[in-house]
Each structure stands twice: as C-alpha cells, then as structure tokens.
Design a protein that fits this description.
It contains five helices and three strands, in the order ααβαβαβα. It is α/β, with parallel strands linked by helices. The chain is elongated, with a radius of gyration of 16 Å. The two termini are 28 Å apart.
Length: 105
C-alpha cells in the first residue's frame, strides 16, 4: 500500500497536478477517498501529502485494519474518516487477529 501511495504522489508531482490545482483553486483543500485496499492507499497518501498541504481530508471506506500502527493514530485523527459497514471482514483484519487465529488453529 505504501508503494502505491508513493507512486500516486510521484505521478501527481511529475505532472504538476497539485501545484496547478493550487494556482487555479487557492482556497480549496485536498480530499482523497478510497475503498478497501484503496482506502489504505488513500490514508497513506494523505499522510504523505500532509507534510506539504495543510487542508487534507481522507474518506476511507472499509480500510484494512493494518494500515496505521497504534502509535501513528494521532496523526490521522482529524484528517482520516473511516466508514466500516456491518460485518465487513477487511477492516477487522490485523496482524494481531492473524496471530490469534494461528493460535486457535
């Protein structure tokens, strides 16, 4: 996921997309969204962009549960909004869950 987020960021920079949009719409912020694995990529991309852009929002629909470590959560509190629906399995998966599953098996 991090490799994908870095690829998107480099592609945006290579084509001057963010700089051009900042000139055209100076009062606008950046909003990123993604679903499932794409939500993980969107979250990481938002963290990478946060270094250069103040107004970043990320809407992560059913993000994987292993995107951010617990120590990194404060960085995302006011920036990433996650939506998890019903019993969706992907957001509930984490390394800890897998280790627990191995013990049970």
């Amino acid at each position: 996921m991090l490799r994908s987020a870095r690829y998107v960021l480099e592609t945006l920079k290579e084509h001057n997309v963010l700089e051009d949009l900042k000139v055209l719409y100076p009062n606008y912020g950046i909003t990123i969204c993604g679903h499932s694995l794409g939500a993980g990529v969107a979250t990481l991309l938002a963290l990478l962009l946060k270094q250069s852009y103040e107004t970043i929002r990320c809407y992560a629909f059913s993000p994987p549960g292993c995107v951010i470590s617990e120590s990194g959560l404060p960085e995302t509190e006011n920036m990433v909004f996650s939506v998890i629906v019903g019993d969706d399995l992907v957001p509930r998966l984490s390394y800890e869950v897998f280790f627990h599953l191995i013990i049970l098996i």
